[in-house]
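Q: Convert this sequence to structure tokens.
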Amino acid sequence: MADSEPAGPKLFVLLLKQDDPRKCTSVKMAKFGLARPLHRLGQVPRRAITLNPYASRILLRGDGQVAELFGLVAVDCSWERADEVFEHKLPGEQRKLPTLLAANPVNYAKPHRLSSLEALAAALYILSFRDRAKELLSLFKWGTQFLTLNHDPLEEYSTARSEREMLEAERQFF
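A:
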């Protein structure tokens, strides 16, 4: 069964090529076949969940069915240009992640400054695809540190059934 599809949603990364490709987590996910690279907005599946730090709605465990059917998309761009990237209407169902701390070396322990890999792993964890989250994080030496830094919040976030519950969990930790 080595050729079977992994459990959970298809993962996509919209590569905007704004960062050093040698450090780009999305490029590495694509290289290892863990996410499908997209190069244009038109390639983003219209009904997929697009992770957007400026979205009005928070990703909840209940979004898992939509993610499984249509996929989960991370937009790989520089944090320095995120405002201009996300001000455009992006395809997909827009969802933001609750507060989490980055473990990547560039933004270590900074809230909300996740790499694309961390964002997809967090989304998978919240949607109850923990093994897939761990698989993604295993690509980098610092990956397991993401789960260590965020273990308790991720556990709470993955049980929230409403935005109110998610915000209560977020306040508990941040």
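The chain has one domain: 11-173.
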